[in-house]
Amino acid sequence: MSSHAPATPLGIDPAGTVHSSHEHHELGFWRRYIFSTDHKVIGLQFLFTGLVMLLFGGLMAMAIRWQLAYPWTEMPLVGKILFPETGGVATPEGYTMLFTMHGTLMIFFVIIPLLTGTFGNFLIPLMLGAPDMAFPRLNMIGYWFWWPGIVLILLSFGAEGGGPAAGWTSYPPLSTIETAAPGSLQGQNLWLLSLTFVGVSSMMGAINYVTTIVKMRAPGMTYFRMPLSIWGLFISALLQLFALPVLTAAGFMQLFDRVLDTGFFTPTNTTINGLTPEAGELAAGGHPLLWQHLFWFYSHPAVYIMVLPAMGFASDILSVNARKPIFGYKPMAYSMAGIAGLGFIVWGHHMFMSGMNPAVGLVFMTATVLIAMPSAVKVFNWLGTLWGSSIRLNTSMLFALAFVSMFIIGGLSGIWMACTAVDIYIHDTYIIVAHFHYVVFAGSVLAIFGALYHWFPKMFGRMMNETLGKIHFVGTFIFTNGVFYMMHQLGIAGLMRRTADPYAYETFAHMQPMNQFISICAFCLLFWQVFFVINFFGSMFLGKRVGRNPWKACSLEWVAPSPPGHGNFDRELAVHHGPYEYGVPGQREDYCPQTVEIDAAPTPVEEPVLA
Amino acid sequence: MKFNLFRVFVVLLFLAVPVLGVWTFVDAERWKMWFPEGVTTYAGEIDFLFDIILWMVAITFVGTEFLLVWAIWRFSKKEDGKVTYTHGNHTLEVVWSAVPALLLIFIAFSQMGAWSTIKMNFPDEGPYTVDAPMMEVIAGQFDWWVRYPDEEGNFRGEDVIDVPFDIHVPVNTKVVFRLKSRDVLHSFFVPKFRLKQDAVPGMSIPVWFEATETGSYDLICAELCGWGHYKMAGRVHVLEEQEYEDWLSQKRSELYAND
Ligand code: HEM
Ligand SMILES: [Cu+2]
Ligand SMILES: [Cu+2]
């Protein structure tokens, strides 16, 4: 391990605010809870906002599922709000808007903010032994830049002509030409502006995460002594830094196309609904595929932004509750880096059928199948971690185990999609929907639940209720699979996604009962989250108070008080070893915190790879 | 050792994933939740490629899920808390990186033949070629128009035949057509042909297939194209060669009669 110790957090203080004043100075309500620069408060702000958005996105999913189960019938509860003019019956354009907004909310307002905004903020300084983020004020601004995005996206529902309805992918010309879709009026402009704010917010976060990780690790906290959660957050922040500018630029190009008729994405001689849009009349000279390249250049890396931190959380939770070091720490870190690196050269796998040069498709295919390799390595190492361990089946562990089980499914189905020839048939069918929900819902969302149960004691100084947690887990696990598993078979049978009423087709007519089963599971899944809500908010006030380290974990956040005060640590930190020293032979306790030296030299049972 | 009911329940829950997972795949065909019968020359090949991957995926799925279930079962009952203290194993890492890598490369290469047959290598001798296609299919919000050329093979002019929604083609013939869009993106998808291709405004994309069975098949738009996307349904009618010729000449005579 490198002997060079990074600058102490006390040594550098880029923002100049952290240490100069915090000792005896009490901040007022506004500075403490609303415009706070404390990373923990900002993390919680992202958490609560993200959970509310998750509820919105979830309700929209229910509306989608209602339509697919009982097309063109009155939707209970949400129908009256979503479709007041038709008495609660979905309209075709309303359905298009629903899945567009469901996807947009879930990705840009739920998953990414929960993973990076919440846990990135909360965990990075604590796990590295830093008193706060490198740029606390930028951090606060980052959170507040998210809000114009939220306001704009909510406003777009009420825009003239309805909300944006070109899919979360917003492919032009559907998204750029106003005559193409009702939602292509103001709604799409608001969507584009909203995503720009969200992007700026993520960018500020990413700058902070990277700087903090590079500059503010406690003495002795070398890169290869960082917990895998930090590796996941680090790499996903790097992905944000490199990929996000492309999306922002592309978004502006689309906005210019819409308001200034620049025609970046509009081919010459376009007519839509018999009308020639202004841009099309000129030799617009644009190309719709350009958007797809730019969009997926960001959005493919973005899907890894949505899973790498979750992989990190799952690794940490597994190791703590298996009471055993993570198996293959370095391969775990390298495979994340491998996924991220390859992630930049695979975007074309979303475009195999798009009209892109088929020879180029072959290159993208090869890169894409290779990405399954580091994913497999991670799964094997998780299994290796469990092997010979002593598992504690608490709620967070159950969710982490579920993450592994579900990620296997999502990862494996990806292989089919990567394969150009097979993808001819399955592209844009329900097997795709199954695939990304297995990764992003059954994977990342379950990992987020696991992480909440795991770090809740640190966040609030109290325990969540284990019994309620287990009830929550069991139902969530069952219904998640009930919702998403049979989508594979529906897709193999050809069922198309984004289709408001598939049953008019001979090919799909017999699929309604299966869709009803899926929808009922979905309603149960949403309902089941009541157990989480009660437990989460109830425990905040009524949970059993805990000390610093209820899970007997090794990483640094557990050295701080629960919850940590301003400035986080009340003692000097020195890191002596990696974060996974569980079950070291010859020790009094079965874990050895990073701040404590392992005295008796351990005799590893197998060949050690700890560098 | 005390018998812990919850632990057994959790193990069964995780065990249900591979068990039900495999069962629903095995039985899917019986529930008509599987590939509809393929009716082009290349359909069989795509299904076969899918099946190769299916086998590899199934073995990996069952293997890893069972290992996971076994690990949960075996290692959650310890009471002495003794664990195998190890940080990993170099040989294992090499093996489980290299083996998947090789399998995946094999999978990628196995795709290339079929992909280039379908998307890159168009029939170069008659009756239809990329330069002399049988028809043009023009997608638009929310309809399909099929244009057959006049007797000289021109797609412009008075004597072309335009048919909405219904595509007529001869069986056992390599049909080449050009796919266009009038407005936004659409996608030409005939599940039983195993054929999908986006239609892009400004592009004229060559597509080919050879149907092996007569009949009428669903043509579905597979790319979101606006509110009416879900009902942008067409039909492909695969006719005996003679039937097709008769249909075409009848269309022509209708056209001339109208003049
Ligand atoms: C309660 C759980 C959920 C259910 C029942 C659900 C259901 C659905 C359904 C029915 C669709 C539309 C399929 C179609 O195109 O016809 C869909 C699309 C989608 N979902 Fe979910 N979903 C859930 C959770 C999530 C989560 C957590 C995410 C997070 C990223 C997510 C991301 C997406 C995306 C990106 C799309 C595609 C949207 C588009 O193509 O425009 N979903 N979901
Ligand atoms: Cu991708
Ligand atoms: Cu369409």
Description:
- The complex is a heterodimer of chains A (611) and B (259).
- Chain A is mostly helical and 611 residues long.
- Chain A folds into 3 domains: 40-273, Up-down Bundle (Cytochrome C Oxidase, Chain A), CATH 1.20.210; 307-545, Cytochrome c oxidase-like, subunit I domain (Cytochrome C Oxidase, Chain A, Up-down Bundle); 547-611, no CATH class.
- Chain A contains 18 helices and no strands.
- Chain A has helices at residues 18-21, 29-34, 39-69, 79-82, 92-128, 136-157, 186-215, 228-260, 278-281, 288-305, 308-322, 329-343, 358-386, 395-418, 420-426, 430-460, 466-492, 512-542.
- The longest helix of chain A has 37 residues, at 92-128.
- Chain A starts with 17 loop residues before the first helix and ends in a 69-residue tail after the last helix.
- Residues 1-24 and 601-611 of chain A have low confidence and may be disordered.
- Chain B has 259 residues and is α+β, with helices and mostly antiparallel strands.
- Chain B folds into 2 domains: 5-75 and 89-120, no CATH class; 135-258, Immunoglobulin-like (Sandwich).
- Chain B has helices at residues 5-27, 43-75, 90-120, 241-258; strands spanning 135-140, 143-148, 161-164, 166-170, 175-181, 186-190, 195-199, 205-209, 215-221, 233-239.
- A 5-stranded mixed beta sheet of chain B has the order 3-2-1-5-8. A 5-stranded mixed beta sheet of chain B has the order 4-10-9-6-7.
- In chain B, strand 6 (186-190) and strand 7 (195-199) form a beta hairpin.
- Chain B is elongated, with a radius of gyration of 27 Å.
- At the A-B interface, helix 5, helix 12, helix 13, helix 14 and helix 15 of A face helix 1, helix 2, helix 3 and strand 7 of B.
- The complex binds protoporphyrin IX containing FE and copper (II) ion (2 copies).
- The site of one copper (II) ion has 7 residues of chain B, from loops.
Query: Gyration radius of chain B, to the nearest Å?
Result: 27 Å
CATH class of the largest domain in chain B: Mainly Beta
Helical region count of chain B?
Answer: 4
Q: Helical region count of chain A?
A: 18
The secondary structure category of chain A is mainly alpha
Number of domains of chain A: 3
Structural class determined from secondary elements of chain B: alpha+beta
Shape of chain A: globular
Q: Write down the CATH topology of the largest domain in chain B.
A: Immunoglobulin-like
Helix content of chain B: 40-55%
Task: Find the CATH superfamily of the largest domain in chain A.
Answer: Cytochrome c oxidase-like, subunit I domain
Number of strands of chain A: 0
| DSSP strand content of chain A | under 5%
Low-confidence stretches of chain B: none
CA radius of gyration of chain A:
25 Å
Task: Report the strand count of chain B.
Answer: 10
CATH class membership of the largest domain in chain A: Mainly Alpha
Strand-and-helix sequence of chain A, N→C? HHHHHHHHHHHHHHHHHH
